[in-house]
Amino acid sequence: MGLVMVQGYFCDSIGKKIIYQALHFFTLAFPRKGVGAFAAIPGRPAGQHKNACFFIGHGNPQNAFRDNPFTRSLTQMGQAVNPSAILVISAHWLSLGDTFISTRPKYENTEYKVVGAPSVADLVMEQNTGIVSDSYRQLDHGAWAILRHIKPKADIPVLELSIDMEKPLDYHWRLSQQLRSLRDRGVLIIGSGNIVHNLELSALKFFSSKPYGWAIEFDEWVKGRIDDRDFSSLFYYFKLGTIADRAVPTMDHYLPMLYSLALADANEPITYTYEEVFSGISMRCFRIG
To answer: Which residues pair with 161 in a beta bridge?
Structure first.
């Protein structure tokens, strides 16, 4: 029986199924508990430039090799920033029980060879001693598929932070707020996921990209909450019932958006850079700052 790697562990197909079922359980169980008060916004030293941060609805990894309106929007986003490093929080690095940060000095992905940013990782681990170093993991497609367009020269150091699916939503929000000081150091922080992400129901529309009504409705609901700066309602998305169950069957792609929003200052502008819904996927992207 062949072996596959899931979340850093080699296992057979049965083990793979068990791990994914466990991840699915945690995404359903933990959103409904632990939503506490948000952490205070830390002050910013006078005179320092504050970098923007992004949320990217990354979609199909084949977009890494395509020229289309979505990828051109990524290029435009990248041209508007000149970061000292890039930190990606991707829906494709999930963990259970620990939050990891990549400390590799260099990534060897054939799709996007780039140096790492271990010094930035050290800063993050100094601020939060609960974050664990990972010096082995390569970039996943939630990172390289978008970075090929955002910074095609691969001349900016990159690192990733895992998403601990065992933690409640307020943990992720507070952790992201602790990352705000990195923006003052010129670090571009990118949440990479999708607001609506249902591959199973999207597969039923194999011959049509026409969006489901519930996908459009949920995407517009999230947009409305962002426009109203009503971020706390995004924690309770499941109260929408069936459309939420279909739009967010698991939280892995939804959480990166919350990481991005937690980085915003009270009156900081949020600009939508791309808007599209097809089948059961939302490709909405936005820039903060």
So the answer is: 89, 101
Q: Which two structure tokens, joined as six digits, stand for 220?
A: 């517009």
Distance of CA 243 to CAs 10, 25, 169, Å? 35, 19, 20
| Confidence band, pLDDT 50/70/90 cuts, at residue 253 | very high
CA atoms within 13 A on the CB side of 287: 17
Q: Using a cut of 0.70, tell me whether the model's pTM lies above it.
A: yes
> What CA–CA distance (Å, rounded) separates 96 from 21?
12
Name the residue ranges covered by the structural domains of the chain.
1-30, 49-288
Q: What is the CATH number of domain 49-288?
A: 3.40.830.10
